Amino acid sequence: MIFLKLGGSLITEKANPETPRLDMLRRLAQEIADARHIDPALRLLIGHGSGSFGHAAASRHATQHGASTPEQWLGFVEVWRSANRLNRIVVDALSDAGLPILSFPPSASALARSGEVTELADLPIQRALGHGLIPLVQGDVAFDSIQGACILSTERVFTWLAPRLRPGRILLVGTEAGVFADFPANTNLLPQVSQHDLAQQRVGASAEVDVTGGMAEKVRSALEWARVDPAVEIRIFSGEEPGHLRSVLLGGRAGTQVIWLGQPD
């Protein structure tokens, strides 16, 4: 079982509101289809970020900080609509490549508390996997018992699903070659990153607006997965080079591996 996240910075032009990278999406979809053709036993759950869709709207309305007024709830709906538009584009690209995609938007099945998932219907996802389908999750809005509303990143959805589905690999594919020690110069790629690198602030943030926290948040989430299950292989790498995603899906190693140094709790 592989969890694969298609980063928002990879599938959209994050500096231009609601602008998908359609050629990129089509290529990535075909690489996933090619990998499944080569290895028919490949089991996947795919997630995608919101990029210039949900992030831009969420930043305007500060939805990540909650909602209480009528105007803020209208903003909540606007963020949902924006994220949903991108999800439809991703579904179509993956489906056009022949992949049996079924979308599971967290806004329809998740609840949160202070931005952390407290409930998410995973049984339908398990049923989809059992029938050979590919579930698709996404960064999305959710109702929050403390602050009214929140943004759930794909990583937080993965955090909920990982102990229930037990993936052997979690792959985060974006525009960066991996985690750099010298962001934004990006000359010192870390082959591995651990909780000690994060504590020493060796992990930079995102270059564009990212209401879910950028690279540091991705590494924090990945470290949580590694802490809970040290056997899981977690990689952060670039999908910009043609064939790169296909290679990694079939077992190739690239980018930065996230590891937990020490005993799991």
Written overview of the protein:
With 265 residues, this protein is of the alpha/beta class. The protein has one domain: Acetylglutamate kinase-like (Carbamate kinase, 3-Layer(aba) Sandwich). Helix content is 40%, strand content 20%. The chain contains nine helices and twelve strands. The chain has helices spanning 8-11, 22-38, 51-61, 70-96, 123-130, 154-165, 195-199, 214-228, 244-249, and strands spanning 2-6, 44-48, 101-103, 110-113, 116-120, 134-138, 140-144, 148-152, 169-174, 192-193, 233-238, 256-258. An eight-stranded mixed sheet has the order 3-6-2-1-9-11-12-10, sandwiched between helices. A four-stranded mixed sheet has the order 5-4-7-8. Helix 2 packs across helix 4 (70-96) and helix 6 runs parallel beside helix 8 (214-228). It is globular, with a radius of gyration of 17 Å. It starts with a strand and ends in a 7-residue tail after the last strand. The relative contact order is 0.16. Residues 206-211 have low confidence and may be disordered.
Short description:
With 265 residues, the chain is α/β, with parallel strands linked by helices.
Fraction of residues in β-strands: 15-25%
CATH topology grouping: Carbamate kinase
* Total number of beta strands: 12
Q: Spans with pLDDT under 50 lasting ≥5 residues?
A: 206-211
Structural class determined from secondary elements:
alpha/beta
CATH class, anyone?
Alpha Beta
Order of strands side by side in the largest beta sheet? 3-6-2-1-9-11-12-10
- Helix % is 25-40%
N→C terminal distance: 23 Å
Question: Shape, please?
Answer: globular
What's the gyration radius in Å? Answer: 17 Å
Number of helices: 9
Mean pLDDT: 90
Order of helices and strands, N to C? EHHEHHEEEHEEEHEEHHEHE
